[in-house]
Sequence to fold (1396 residues):
Amino acid sequence: MGYCINHPDRQTQYLCMKDNIYFCEDCLTCRNSEIYCKFRQSCPIWFIVKKGFKSWGGDEKPVSTEYSVTFQPENKQIKVKDGESLLEAAQRAEIPLNASCNGKGACGKCKLVVDSGNIKSEPTALLTQEEKSKNYVLACKTTVHGDITVRIPEETIERNLKVAGMGEAATKRLQGLVDNISPISIDINLQLSAPTLEDPVSDLDRLYRGLSKSKQVDTDHLNISLKVMQELAEVMRNDDWSVHASIIRKRCGNEVVAIHSGTTQEASLGVAVDLGTTSIVVYLVDMANGDILGATSGHNRQAACGDDVINRVVCAEKNGVKKLSTMVLATINGLINELIHSANIKREQIKNATISGNTIMTHLLLQIEPKYIRREPYIPSVSDFPIMQAKDIGLKINPQGAVFVLPGPASYVGGDIVAGVLYTGLHNKDHMTLFIDVGTNGEIVLGNKDFLMTASCSAGPAFEGGGVRWGMRAEEGAIEKVVISKDTLAPEIGVVGDVKPRGICGSGMIDLISEMMMCGIINQSGKFQLDENHPRMMRDDYDIGYIIAYENETNVDKDIVFTETDIDNLIRSKGAIYAGFLVLLEEAGMDFSMVDEIILTGGFGQYLNIEKAINIGMLPELDQSKFHYMGNSSIAGAYMCLLSDRYRSDARQISNNMTYIDFSSNNHYMDEFTSALFLPHTNINSFPTVMQKIKEGK
Amino acid sequence: MGYCINHPDRQTQYLCMKDNIYFCEDCLTCRNSEIYCKFRQSCPIWFIVKKGFKSWGGDEKPVSTEYSVTFQPENKQIKVKDGESLLEAAQRAEIPLNASCNGKGACGKCKLVVDSGNIKSEPTALLTQEEKSKNYVLACKTTVHGDITVRIPEETIERNLKVAGMGEAATKRLQGLVDNISPISIDINLQLSAPTLEDPVSDLDRLYRGLSKSKQVDTDHLNISLKVMQELAEVMRNDDWSVHASIIRKRCGNEVVAIHSGTTQEASLGVAVDLGTTSIVVYLVDMANGDILGATSGHNRQAACGDDVINRVVCAEKNGVKKLSTMVLATINGLINELIHSANIKREQIKNATISGNTIMTHLLLQIEPKYIRREPYIPSVSDFPIMQAKDIGLKINPQGAVFVLPGPASYVGGDIVAGVLYTGLHNKDHMTLFIDVGTNGEIVLGNKDFLMTASCSAGPAFEGGGVRWGMRAEEGAIEKVVISKDTLAPEIGVVGDVKPRGICGSGMIDLISEMMMCGIINQSGKFQLDENHPRMMRDDYDIGYIIAYENETNVDKDIVFTETDIDNLIRSKGAIYAGFLVLLEEAGMDFSMVDEIILTGGFGQYLNIEKAINIGMLPELDQSKFHYMGNSSIAGAYMCLLSDRYRSDARQISNNMTYIDFSSNNHYMDEFTSALFLPHTNINSFPTVMQKIKEGK
Fold:
């Protein structure tokens, strides 16, 4: 039971399982009746819609006069039409506002403080009375009707913080991983002989002859662009027939993409990009030896269009795919600029790039139409990409630089998962591995050297902070560890960066729920059973929750709490993962006993407590030695593909060999999901040790 | 002896052998002392320059005020600076003015009539007193000093006339020549299966699967551009998974360059282009069966920058290669427009193009730096071109259309000669062939299936009308045949198009000189020996000549005459060709007796009298059955390459197999050239039959 998103005074049982919003009977309709929704088969709202409830509609408002909106502290001004929403204004002004639900009014994150001016705000349950009294509004639910000035509160500003787990330890693991380096784009230094009457071959033939002698490239299938041919004569003569050529090795032949006078001793560099729905990680790599010269990460600016991939596609359909591409390119190029600056190198030195992302992210980046991905039968437009050049896609490295985008086998299992498999090497192993990457989605792979099966289990963004009141990514200020004292019921917390907390990330949530359950603060349904008057308990108009950190202990001047709704969300996410494991094994005619290794990867940062993940039923109860947490495998795979042709061809093979199982049309998956909505699980026989611990109150 | 170009009253012996201009001692200097000149080794001016005469210089004039020049009958207006030449103004206004010598004041062809306004003209011997009295000026020697209006006289307007010899007979010879048609760009119609949950491969994989099943293209090495990938999703769904793809078959793999919804039954068309220095010929071809749907030709607009390739390069160095490219593209695209209009087809249907031109023409078209071609050691930048797309080079056919540019073995032997060899098939024959293409240059090939040798003999533009007072190309109004009555010494002429004559073309000149010699009008040195008072004799201030057509018989209201200077030029041209034959044979250790066949091609139109060409010593005295005149072999080879992959690869092989002999560094060539400056030759033993005829007064 929860409160209607539009009528905060009405309690209701109807929960949109996808958007995690309650609706009262008056509001009851599916918001996305045309789009792909994994929950559809068991969704109460969907069945009611199908029975004939009328659609919502009437979203457009009459617009006429223009007003100006000033955003502080940036002091950025933008013109808006009467009735335009603040979120639209912020997006146009490129104010990095966090709008996880893409303007649905569901996430409550796009908070702004109105300093002055005429606005209209819809009622919302997602602002506290205190916030309302301080003129907080939700940008998406507020329209402009006069010149106004707004301020971005601390907690709304997206910070360009380092993603935890990407520190020295993680990068050192990669160093030396690739021994036989073979970049896509190579530079070849040549000292050519000057032409004579006796040796009058054309400039181009002279170049090809030199390249052929260098034995570094196959000149039989060498292409060259008109632009390079046009420059050839001068470039070859400018430094007495000494030149260096940049050559891209494509699958269907090589291409001379640039030629310059003189030889070069400059280091050739590359970037590996983990193109996540939420976070983007970029490594700067020395192509000569694989050294990682720098690493940085940032939030995908597309987050302004929603947390999950489906919202991004909806946004692309509305605003054009180019807009989404521009947003993500701004993020990637900003990170590249940061690396160029901090490593003190020249942009032109970066001649190689690999990009590892899920299928929708790569479509949006490349401006390839993504809309059919969310419509049955869920077809991506391109799954295996040719080698491209940076200038073609807008990547701000050397314009002639080569770009390899990792291929992905299906609409909901993309290149990032292929990268993960490549990094773990499970496709080469004899023993059976179950692999899960927990990001904004949850993708599972089961297999070994003989076969690979994969599925996407729609775990939702809870582990990355989505749909959780104080949820955040594993960044500085995120609570990542929690131990609760059985005596005082007070938590001892570990925070990323050892600073005052700003919120809680996935690993913190797993710890917290496990601890609350073991201490009896919540029961196995995830409901609070602690005395209402306990100092750690919070109750407001809408929800009840546990106070993890008091106002004065935090960096946000408010209590950081974890509510029953948050717990519900987490339980659905962990249930989706567990159900995914079970059903994928079943499709292969197997069960957990036949699994030799379980590899977890994803955005948990450096820390993940396996035991506690088992306690809450996210992971199966197996010997802990079988579990391995491997961090961000997407960036690791991208790094490997950046350096080695063998790995690039492995990636293609992995993608081709994967059998995709579609859970959206799988009744059994919904059953298993429902059974998993309990701590640790409805079927307690699967978790004997956990049950024993609960019994013993450990 | 002649008259100084700058001082028409001064007689002088110094003749620039390249530009065909006399200089008095005051003016004596090489105008192009830095450029490649084939005559240099025996040039009197050059040696004097080397001895220390100071260079000309001082070409620039102070400019300030702006005036307007109006060109009639086009009524086109353009602003010019004070002191700018009328030729520069005309070129900027894109008035198609004939300026064979590129503004040197040597050809006398850029005549304009000044109707009103303030101009300054340098004195010139190239205008008659009558013309001067009618306000004729040479545009290149006239500067503007006020608003003026000029008129383009009839004889200056470049006409878009059909090149003779390209009529039905010539095109019919090609029909059916290519039996196994394999275009570069092909269209493939596909009816794909719609995706299902059971068959969820990506759009691109579905397309590739369809292409692979069609067996029309190798999908293993298939590339695709980002733009096509971006359109893929919609295009494939728009007509229920029925599509047609355009694929270019490149040397190093194929590429999907376009995809459209629905199937197409539209004929795929192609254009074959003979890119001549002077004339450009375009054929429109049905790619299904090789039918020639239309043929047209026009004058290369680059002619405004000079008649010969060297002047074009000089012009490109001065004005940028882009300008020259724009000029020639305007010509080609204009001709294509004409064909599109007359054949009533759509531009988009033209998906294939081949271009056959000499090395400098192809460099200029593609904006590839040509300047080193005219500097020792005379190196082209590119001799073998990759397949390009029309949009890349500015060809106005389907933008995605494939363009094949015929490769050429050397700076002065280009793709047009390779096309000629391909068409004649001499590279496949057992017997020994001597091939010459007489165009603005004269290129010779000697060989059979075992070897190919080639050279360029710098015949100059005389046979195409350059440097000849009434010279013109083999167009409507050109005198192409001449028989002179021994009794009356009056000529009987044949004119292209059976109209009143406007001038005389190469074949007419050969006839005329042979006839004048046989009738005793001129002696064997090419000097007039006819009585000055004979009604057919003309003498003006500068020259003496034979009147071929009286004023009232012509279309230009003036006597058409052939002067001693004209004869001198022709003798030099024919001498260059004959010397070329001899030296190339000598390089191969052969002589004329070992030659089984002599093939002539080039711009003579439909008619060439072999006997008379032998009489004047242009061709060796051999059995006439050994000679074959094959018309425009450049367009024929381009046509063959348009239709067939086999011929395209043959062309590459011919180009690769040719050994180029450079005459510019060959002393023996200059000796032979000098010996050939006599009618028929200094060595009369080589022409016993001709000598007998002369003796008998035939």
Residues 50-63, 157-166 of chain A have pLDDT under 50 and may be disordered. Residues 564-587 of chain A form the longest helix (24 residues).
